[in-house]
Amino acid sequence: MTLRALIADDEPLARALVREFLANHADVLLVAEAENGLEAARCIQDLAPDLVFLDVQMPKLTGLEVLQLTGLRRGVIFTTAYDQHALAAFDLHAVDYLLKPFNQERFDAAMQRARQLLREGAPAVDRMLSAQALTRVLIREGSELRVLPLDEVEYIEAQGDYVAFRHAGRDHLKAQRISELESQLDPRQFVRVHRSFIVNLRQLQAVERTESNGHAVRLRSGKRLPVSRRGHELLLGVL
């Protein structure tokens, strides 16, 4: 089986080294290279590579943010010059972790491990992603990708199989269930006040009673959203 690979690293020499080592693996086809995190995310979404050599520290998006925003769960080999990340990467079940400068032998060992995990279909980075709350989301608008800082999102609304992020007076759609997104957010900042709404508490101005003796939230923009009984309990637990 041919493995389709992506190299994501902001250092041209580092990309060249991985490219050179990959030449010894006839079952690997290099489909793209990226020099920053945003390019890496775009390549992952457009090309769906089987194997990604991902630098931990990159401009625009870090390696971890790339994983969070694209939903990539397997076939990831981290590469970095900073050994302080190594222990965490192994503990969090990354496929492998290559500390620069690495040699062909070490690279080949990582490839062997990656092939084994891909054959087994084992998720490699789920614990890493679940341990980190999202701080940004990746939105596709036409042929472009846009990164929205969650701090600036006013609220999130469920719209069928999509969620709409309200940001700067506009809705930005992403194909995702609101329940899945809720589990990725920081519960100290984002509260699901209703089955259809998640509110950014930094945008909250007041919790109000309604005429039917229920509750609603009023945001800084003046927008009012309904609050369910469960949502009210969650708000009381955080506020």
Please provide a written account of the structure.
The chain has 239 residues and is an alpha/beta fold. The protein has two domains: 3-130, Response regulator (Rossmann fold, 3-Layer(aba) Sandwich), CATH 3.40.50; 136-238, LytTr DNA-binding domain (OB fold (Dihydrolipoamide Acetyltransferase, E2P)). Helices cover 31% and strands 34% of the residues. The protein has eight helices and 15 strands. It has a five-stranded parallel beta sheet with strand order 2-1-3-4-5, with helices on both faces. It has a five-stranded antiparallel beta sheet with strand order 10-9-8-12-11. A three-stranded antiparallel beta sheet has the order 13-14-15. Mean pLDDT is 88; it is low at 89-93.
Give a quick summary of the entry.
This protein has helices at residues 12-22, 37-47, 63-70, 86-91, 104-120, 126-130, 178-182, 229-238; strands at 3-8, 28-34, 51-55, 76-80, 96-99, 136-141, 144-149, 153-159, 162-167, 170-175, 190-194, 197-200, 204-209, 215-219, 224-227. It is an alpha/beta fold and 239 residues long.
List keywords for this structure.
single chain; 239 residues; alpha/beta; Rossmann fold; OB fold (Dihydrolipoamide Acetyltransferase, E2P); 2 domains; 8 helices
Give the secondary structure arrangement, pairings included.
Blueprint: E1 3-8, H1 12-22, E2 28-34, H2 37-47, E3 51-55, H3 63-70, E4 76-80, H4 86-91, E5 96-99, H5 104-120, H6 126-130, E6 136-141, E7 144-149, E8 153-159, E9 162-167, E10 170-175, H7 178-182, E11 190-194, E12 197-200, E13 204-209, E14 215-219, E15 224-227, H8 229-238
Parallel strand pairs: 1-2, 1-3, 3-4, 4-5
Antiparallel strand pairs: 6-7, 8-9, 8-12, 9-10, 11-12, 13-14, 14-15
Helix pairs in contact: 2-3
